[in-house]
Amino acid sequence: MHLDISWQDVDTVLLDMDGTLLDLAFDNFFWQKLVPETFAAQQGLTPEEAQSVLHKEYHAVQHTLNWYCLDYWSERLGLDICAMTTQQGPRAVLREDTVPFLDALKKSGKRRILLTNAHPHNLAVKLEHTGLASHLDLLLSTHTFGYPKEDQRLWQAVAKETGLCAERTLFIDDSEPILDAAATFGIRYCVGVTNPDSGLADKRYLRHPGTNDYRNLIPSLLKEM
């Protein structure tokens, strides 16, 4: 699907965090390796048994706010997920194309809003280690609204909070169900990140255009200034 953005028709750019502005390698390591290993050791399970238990637990709450909630997982698994997140903080890194793109958006007068499902503690730890906040105009965690990005009520609340016009908004994320939710709400441009984890092969989107390097968007962005 071809990615063609008329930048003069865009006022606001909404950006996901994990896998979109930050390398998803952090989260994949944390949830798919560290948590299962820690849980296995605590419960006296084999790695395979722990993976099986966690797979069911993760799947049961996918696309709900609990899936992203560190407090929920701490209670559910009997682990101090917040402390583990703090300890792993230095692993959080920006994508190489993030800062050039965010700076170009600023130069062209676009409003840059972070819209993440990440838990506020997760967000704070990642901001501390990446300096991401200085390149954004507003940072929003869906936890403060009570709904994840998969829920239309979240989009209504964010539009009310920010005053954004859906018809003049670009949204970038690495989850197709979330891009679908944004499109359903009426967000004009919904773009998927094809390489959210630097250590994995590119992914494809069925219903949305994708990009693997924001720097490819900068020439057209700055040309329309």
UniProtKB/TrEMBL annotation:
GO CC, any one term: cytosol
GO molecular function, a single term: phosphoglycolate phosphatase activity
This protein's UniProt keywords: Hydrolase, Metal-binding
Pfam families xref list: Hydrolase
UniProt xrefs under InterPro entries: HAD-like_hydrolase_sf, HAD-like_sf, HAD-SF_hydro_IA, HAD_sf
SUPFAM superfamilies with a match to the protein in the record: HAD-like
GO biological process: DNA repair
The organism's place on the tree of life at top rank: Bacteria
PANTHER family: GMP_IMP NUCLEOTIDASE YRFG, PHOSPHOGLYCOLATE PHOSPHATASE
Name of this chain's protein: Putative hydrolase of the HAD superfamily
Organism for this UniProt entry: Kosakonia oryziphila
